[in-house]
Amino acid sequence: VQLVESGGGLVQPGGSLRLSCAASGFTFSIYTMGWFRQAPGKEREFVASIRGSSSNTGYTDSVKGRFTISRDNAKNTLYLQMNSLKPEDTAVYYCNTNPPQIFPNSWGQGTQVTVSS
After folding, report:
1. Stretch (H or E) spanning 32
2. Which of 51, 69, 44 is nearest to 59 (CA)?
3. pLDDT per residue as tens digits for the range 80-89
4. In 3-state terms, what secondary structure has residue 28?
5. Among candidates 11, 80, 86, 16, which has minimal Cα distance to 47?
6. Phi, psi (5° rounding) for residue 7?
7. Could you say which residues of the chain have pLDDT below 70?
8. Which residues make Cβ contacts (< 8 Å) with residue 73, sequence separation at least 6?
9. By 3-state DSSP, what share of the chain in percent is helix, strand and coil, each rounded to 5?
10. 10 CB contacts (<8 Å, ≥6 apart)?
């Protein structure tokens, strides 16, 4: 199993970024997938999830209305569109199954998102 996140960067408050997660080594389309993030000095936390069929999504309260999770099962890719970014969104963002670690040792390297003026 391999999960490779990309798309992070430095953005000003109010800006947007689109994260991608390329998945391989498992049947991506049948698993609920999620985005998670870890800020410096904090525990990794759940951000958003999406069912295999893309029919059901969920978000942590702090990102509702600003972030949108989606997936392309034909490309084995998970996305996170992040709008109206705030400094408190600064973190390393990871993708994984939800719940995470259905596949042991499956965390990728993550992608750094920094929101700062």
Report:
1. none
2. 69
3. 999 999 999 9
4. helix
5. 80
6. 105, -5
7. none
8. 28, 29, 52, 54
9. 10, 45, 45
10. 114, 116
